[in-house]
Amino acid sequence: MDEWIEALAALRRRGEPCVLVTLVDELGSTPRNRGSKMLVTAEQAFDTIGGGQLEFQALAIAREMLQQGASGLRLERFPLAARLGQCCGGATSVLFEPLIAPRPQIALFGAGHVGRALVNILATLPCRVRWIDGRAEQFPAQIPAGVSRILSEDPLDEVDAMPAGGYFIVMTHDHALDLALAERILRRGDAGYFGLIGSLAKRKRFEYKLGQRGLGEAAIAAMRCPLGLADVKGKLPAEIAVAVAGEIVACYGHKSRPGSDV
């Protein structure tokens, strides 16, 4: 069995994005025959389409597609001598096919009542969750599958550890920590979503304090507070969790549609 087939099965189990690279045409002398395949992830490649500059360029294109979250097919034609300087001198066309859509990566700060209710919903969605708190006793004995428990004395470091486009949900027990996290997240300027638990009054206080710290109105406007779908009413932890999860689903659903800005 080809190595890429076994690798694809393992990647599907983990939900890890990848691009299948296939030689779909050959003219003259080429390093591999039509139908040769290579599977590419952000850090690995399985099988080969012949090595050399052709494979080097194909890897770069596939990883660019992964970084951009591309979902459409891409066809590239490579004149091997003219474009890549390979001695075989033929030409080939290469198809790039994203196979597993990137999953949103979510940093959930706070393991209180709402955080515990929310994480149980997020664990059922196609996303990866980092659940962060400095209080070990707040975490339940059983952590849902797909959720990483992060016991951190300095949660601000966890903001920096997130990839570009990551989702941030802040609902800690400490308003000062909420403010510090909000500032750190907004200064990054690359969050796919940032929601902060609280009332309109809390938002006004935070807007003032963040402005004092040098953040502009445009940056602060990216903060969702109050967070969650407005049509979902209720103040019980489960009701708030449903409203927040609904907003997350709406956000990544919009970004995955063709023509969206992500």
TrEMBL record:
Superkingdom: Bacteria
XdhC Rossmann domain boundaries: 107-248
Domain XdhC- CoxI, first and last residues per copy: 12-77
PANTHER family named in the record: ALDEHYDE OXIDOREDUCTASE MOLYBDENUM COFACTOR ASSEMBLY PROTEIN, XANTHINE DEHYDROGENASE SUBUNIT A-RELATED
Protein name in the entry: Xanthine dehydrogenase accessory protein XdhC
High-level lineage: Bacteria, Pseudomonadati, Pseudomonadota, Gammaproteobacteria, Enterobacterales
